[in-house]
């Protein structure tokens, strides 16, 4: 079983991802697909007059500050437009896909973090009213039920807090937690770059291999959101996933290419 996470940044070719996935699924390979939607969420949030607010933690991680209104826009885009767009593509390709969020059946659970420490104008501030968290528990029963009955699960944030509140969680790390919980053979983190670049944005500086016992030392090469992917990869391999691949989802056969070793392979 392979967990594929496809990002939400500009340039990602969902038709290519779905066509490749459908072909392999029909050949008998089993997948769980996790997706993002950040680019589209930003666009729609702007259009609705509630532009996104990104905050950077003192340790250098960037995240979306998710007040209630942002959470609702986030759900409209991730669980609505993006999720159903992918499910529709797969259905048209003859794959019986089912789209769910981490909130549904509490597939993804974690602690609700109401406040976040953010660096703004050189000062550390505490911002309250955040609806974010980190996935701490994965309830795989529902996912296994779907897989066992022949459905392809298409999953997306948000997750459920232990109190049942919707929380925005990082999709890469959620996919890593799912891959661990499902004992997946591989985790593919597909985005709009060829893989982890030593000198971003120089695509010629692709790092081809990362040893599983040394993933964290590669965090230095990743800026902003790429850091979460590297962190997710570290969590996945530490949790027993044999291979994590950072691959390119912009064209061609993104899943087959990544499984054939294109991109950055963590093993
Ligand atoms: P997605 O939404 O597709 O999951 P993100 O936007 O969260 O992807 O993260 C991927 C982005 O990280 C790339 O588009 C790139 O702009 C950025 N990035 C930062 N540092 C690196 C790096 N060293 N190698 C590759 N991409 C990087």
From TrEMBL:
Pathway: Amino-acid biosynthesis; L-lysine biosynthesis via AAA pathway; L-lysine from L-alpha-aminoadipate (Thermus route): step 2/5. It catalyses: [amino-group carrier protein]-C-terminal-N-(1,4-dicarboxybutan-1-yl)-L-glutamine + ATP = [amino-group carrier protein]-C-terminal-N-(1-carboxy-5-phosphooxy-5-oxopentan-1-yl)-L-glutamine + ADP. The record marks 5, 229 as: Transition state stabilizer. Its EC number is 2.7.2.17. The keyword Glycoprotein does not apply. InterPro entries: AceGlu_kinase-like_sf (IPR036393), AcgluKinase_fam (IPR004662), Asp/Glu/Uridylate_kinase (IPR001048), Glu/AcGlu_kinase (IPR001057), LysZ (IPR037529). One of its GO terms (molecular function) is N2-acetyl-L-aminoadipate kinase activity. Keywords: Amino-acid biosynthesis, ATP-binding, Cytoplasm, Kinase, Lysine biosynthesis, Nucleotide-binding, Transferase. Substrate binds at residues 64, 168. Its main location: cytoplasm. GO terms for cellular component: cytoplasm. It is found in: Cytoplasm. GO terms for biological process: L-arginine biosynthetic process; lysine biosynthetic process via aminoadipic acid. Residues 1-246 form the Aspartate/glutamate/uridylate kinase domain. CDD domains: AAK_NAGK-UC. Belongs to the acetylglutamate kinase family. LysZ subfamily. Catalyzes the phosphorylation of LysW-gamma-alpha-aminoadipate. NCBIfam families: argB, PRK14058.1-1, PRK14058.1-3. This is [LysW]-aminoadipate kinase. The gene is lysZ.
